[in-house]
């Protein structure tokens, strides 16, 4: 039966057969264990934290909110949080000011959890990144056409806050406030809901922008925010749209960065959806 097979296949067969005869079956012969809801939730939280959605020192949403966001039972969330504590990613503090706080963005448990969470979704995520750039471009164009004095004030206030932020948490908050102001300037709650829905989908279900705190990324973001704000203020719809489309690739790049830190090389993919969309895991 092996006349056409190669040596490696024969070796593999011999190895598995040897294990079976020794009474220690190989992994292929063990009963299948489906991942539990708790381990899925743990993976997703570890990945969201690795993506900078929740920063060190920040408190995670309460158990009941997480259960609702992730559509699982509270006991699964509790078990998942226990796992995060066990691997040093969060601290659980009791008392009035208590809660679950991020301790480390990345620990020895992160790489595997990130790969398990992102790789099966990667083709869909690239489509979502692309869609989000298109939608945010449309939002910025519309904002440039419809902005009023109050919108301009809000955008500029958020820009100032971003530039003078002293902590990663403040920068993250100012970034969110700036984009919020742009969306509001488009003056259509349905557009705001669409923007939020896409954000939630690229952020693994959490309505929070992934955050890459690298200085170079922050400088880029500040420059693009300033340019976007100026284009919207000047009523230059096309320019505002183009800047926003480019700016939102930051998210795609940040998530790719996290995946490459987890040891998955995506350099062979060109970032456009619908093509080969082959994810290489070397
Ligand atoms: Zn931004």
Question: What hetero molecules are bound to the protein chains?
Answer: zinc ion
Gyration radius from CA atoms, angstroms: 23 Å
List the strand order in the largest sheet.
1-2
Number of helices: 12
The average pLDDT is 87
Give a verbal description of the structure:
The protein has 282 residues and is an all-alpha fold. 62% of the residues lie in helices and 3% in strands. The chain folds into two domains: 37-114, Orthogonal Bundle (Arc Repressor Mutant, subunit A), CATH 1.10.10.10; 122-261, Four Helix Bundle (Hemerythrin (Met), subunit A) (Up-down Bundle). It starts with 6 loop residues before the first helix and ends in a 21-residue tail after the last helix. 31% of the residues are buried. The chain binds zinc ion. Zinc ion (ZN) is lined by residues 175, 179, 221, 225, 247.
Briefly say what this structure is.
By secondary structure, the chain is mostly helical. The chain has 12 helices and 2 strands.
Properties at a glance:
binds zinc ion, two-stranded antiparallel ribbon, disordered C terminus, 282 residues, 2 strands
Secondary-structure map:
Blueprint: H1 7-22, H2 37-50, H3 63-70, H4 74-86, E1 90-93, E2 99-102, H5 110-118, H6 122-146, H7 149-163, H8 168-185, H9 189-202, H10 215-233, H11 237-247, H12 249-261
Antiparallel strand pairs: 1-2
Helix pairs in contact: 2-4, 2-5, 3-4, 6-8, 6-9, 6-10, 6-11, 7-8, 7-10, 10-11
